[in-house]
């Protein structure tokens, strides 16, 4: 199975200047843990997780750019799900943005998606 075979949900994004509170609401309302952060040209600029939002609250940070992770570990559509599972394990993370050649975000792949795929077999 390849990354592109994972059932795709509509991709929800955030921007570096978004208030932390707004991002928190987005995570809760969509029942998700990861959000790709996209710049004004539509390119991947970072990633934010509920952990980062907890960090923002703990340290009184209000803008997303103060807490987002800029060095993002990504997945490509033509990679195998096996490779992504290993990447998740190696980096102690649970979700990767799926990105194309122009750094445009196509979706997210999470440990949950991979468990679901294996559970269906
Ligand atoms: N183990 C937990 C998990 O899987 O989410 C939390 C640990 S992880 C080290 C927490 C940090 O990783 C957060 O600051 C988050 O922004 C960052 N992170 C999550 N996914 C990432 C990814 N795909 N690339 C780079 N950093 C990521």
Low-confidence stretches: none
The mean pLDDT is: 95
Strand arrangement across the biggest beta sheet: 1-2
Helix amount: 25-40%
Largest sheet entry: 2 strands, antiparallel
Please trace the helix and strand order, writing H or E for each element: HEEHHEEH
Number of helical regions: 4
> In the CATH hierarchy, what is the class?
Alpha Beta
State the distance separating the first and last CA atoms.
Answer: 11 Å
What's a quick, concise take on this entry?
The chain is α+β, with helices and mostly antiparallel strands. It has four helices and four strands, in the order H-E-E-H-H-E-E-H.
Can you tell me about this structure?
- There is one protein chain.
- The chain has 121 residues and is an alpha+beta fold.
- The protein has one domain: CBS-domain, CATH 3.10.580.
- Helix content is 34%, strand content 18%.
- It contains 4 helices and 4 strands; from the N terminus they run αββααββα.
- A two-stranded antiparallel sheet has the order 1-2. A two-stranded antiparallel ribbon has the order 3-4.
- A hairpin with a 5-residue loop joins β3 and β4.
- The chain is globular, with a radius of gyration of 14 Å.
- The mean pLDDT is 95.
- The structure holds S-adenosylmethionine.
- The site of S-adenosylmethionine has 13 residues, from β2, α2 and β3.
């Amino acid at each position: 199975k390849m990354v592109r075979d994972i059932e795709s949900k509509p991709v929800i994004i955030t921007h570096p200047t978004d208030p932390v509170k707004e991002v928190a609401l987005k995570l809760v309302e969509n029942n998700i843990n990861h959000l790709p952060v996209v710049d004004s040209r539509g390119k991947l600029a970072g990633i934010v997780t509920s952990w980062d939002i907890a960090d923002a609250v703990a340290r009184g940070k209000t803008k997303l750019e103060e807490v987002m992770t800029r060095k993002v570990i990504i997945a490509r559509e033509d990679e195998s799900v096996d490779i992504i599972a290993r990447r998740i394990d190696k980096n102690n993370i649970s979700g990767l943005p799926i990105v194309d050649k122009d750094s445009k975000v196509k979706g997210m792949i999470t440990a949950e998606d991979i468990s679901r795929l294996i559970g269906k077999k």
